[in-house]
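Translate structure to sequence.
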């Protein structure tokens, strides 16, 4: 049978049988729409959970827990930390792209600020801070942004107030036990600090609404420079450092980066070393308190984790595996439900085609008499089902995208702000769309195999002898 004749017959049969395929086509459309919708929703959830909340391309390495005696703790002894040799060994491990060492500030300190954004000062009796190598974030910061220890570049000129210092220096002072500044102070450049997008999300979603403050995540992410923090070293709400002079210095936020500590501020590593050395001793400055190991691919997690344990260190679990598994299981269950809908609709197509083959036995017999081969008849019936599957699958994909747009708008207006609330809940990938399309067409084709085989097996002599036409 020529291609032109085949297409003509196919179009005629589809027009004549349109009504019998409507219900099945609607079922295929609904099933494919649900399948594409849930696949895209699952991918969107994974992108948030495993991309922002629990990145699955990195692991956090911490020292192995050790017991320090009560007397040793009173004398300032600390558990073994991560050495520079450990860092070099991890960097040489296959599958490791980078190692980001961190050094926590191991002494009491507190901070306050926010006048520029909120119109009033807010503070924390206990501040969390750590230090990282400036080289790790240099490419992420804007041109001209300096993330380094600024003490050597400060003038150190005596001052009574900030106006005595040339901008952008601030008047840093020693502080008495009652919190009063001891003058004169010294003019120092603010210490550059980084904050994490996670901190901004938590602030906007939980802290700001509770205190009647405006959200700052977008504003600070776009214009990070300028937010200043008054920082008391060696002094906090729960105690004082056992060594060093309590001082009031100033920090300025210069950027937002996921490499920063989640809840707190991150300063240059040299600043953390200098402060730890002064307020917590040499041992607190010579070793790292943790390190983030960035993997070239998540599949290297097990091998890198084993190497970390060989070095006498531990991998701190973040919950990424459990959350990722939960999202995957939910997506699989919903996708399976959608697939069942498609298969049930495909059975309706099989039933409709079987009935049409019985009704058209005379036409099929005449086609065979006129020279149509068994394979041509088989392909004609199979093509009917595949065309229905193509049209219904495309309609289902379009319906899923429309539902996704409506979902985003509805939840965007109904749900309050919360940490990591996505603007778009879906990730539409060509692979998922193609997979759903092939599944819809394939299900229809499989359902048509038996009716097509029956039509191809029609014996013209038997049918025409019975007078069926």
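Result:
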């Amino acid at each position: 049978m020529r291609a032109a004749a085949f297409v003509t017959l196919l179009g005629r049969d589809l027009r004549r049988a349109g009504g019998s395929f409507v219900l099945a086509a609607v079922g295929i459309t609904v099933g494919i729409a649900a399948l594409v919708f849930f696949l895209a929703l699952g991918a969107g959830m994974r992108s948030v959970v495993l991309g922002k909340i629990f990145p699955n391309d990195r692991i956090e390495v911490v020292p192995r827990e050790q017991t320090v005696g009560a007397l040793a703790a009173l004398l300032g002894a600390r558990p073994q930390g991560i050495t520079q040799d450990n860092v070099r060994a991890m960097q040489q491990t296959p599958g490791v792209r980078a190692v980001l060492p961190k050094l926590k500030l191991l002494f009491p300190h507190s901070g306050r600020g926010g006048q520029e954004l909120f119109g009033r000062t807010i503070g924390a009796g206990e501040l969390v801070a750590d230090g990282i190598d400036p080289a790790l974030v240099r490419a992420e910061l804007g041109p001209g942004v300096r993330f380094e220890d600024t003490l050597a570049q400060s003038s150190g000129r005596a001052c009574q107030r900030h106006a005595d210092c040339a901008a952008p220096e601030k008047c840093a002072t020693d502080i008495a036990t009652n919190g009063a500044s001891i003058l004169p102070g010294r003019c120092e450049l603010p210490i550059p600090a980084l904050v994490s997008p996670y901190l901004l999300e938590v602030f906007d979603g939980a802290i700001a609404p509770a205190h009647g403050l405006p959200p700052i995540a977008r504003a600070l992410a776009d214009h990070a420079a300028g937010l200043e923090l008054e920082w008391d070293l060696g002094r906090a709400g729960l105690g004082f450092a056992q060594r060093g002079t309590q001082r009031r210095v100033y920090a300025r936020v210069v950027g937002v980066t996921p490499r920063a500590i989640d809840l707190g501020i991150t300063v240059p590593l040299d600043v953390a070393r200098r402060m730890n050395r002064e307020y917590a001793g040499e041992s607190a400055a010579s070793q790292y308190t943790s390190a983030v190991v960035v993997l070239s691919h998540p599949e290297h997690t097990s091998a890198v984790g084993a190497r970390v344990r060989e070095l006498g260190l531990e991998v701190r679990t973040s919950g990424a595996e459990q959350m990722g598994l939960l999202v995957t299981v939910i997506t699989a269950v919903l996708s399976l439900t959608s697939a069942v809908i498609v298969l049930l609709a495909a059975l309706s197509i099989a039933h409709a085609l079987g009935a049409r083959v019985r009704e058209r036995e005379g036409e099929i017999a005449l086609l065979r008499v006129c020279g149509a081969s068994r394979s041509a008849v088989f392909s004609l019936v199979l093509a009917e089902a595949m065309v229905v599957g193509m049209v219904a699958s495309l309609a289902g994909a379009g319906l899923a995208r429309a539902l996704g747009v409506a979902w985003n708008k509805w939840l965007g207006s109904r749900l309050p702000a919360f940490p990591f609330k996505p603007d778009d809940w879906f990730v539409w990938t060509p692979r998922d769309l193609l997979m759903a399309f092939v599944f819809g067409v394939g299900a229809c084709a499989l359902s048509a195999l038996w009716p097509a085989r029956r039509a191809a097996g029609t014996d013209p002599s038997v049918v025409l002898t019975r007078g069926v036409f």
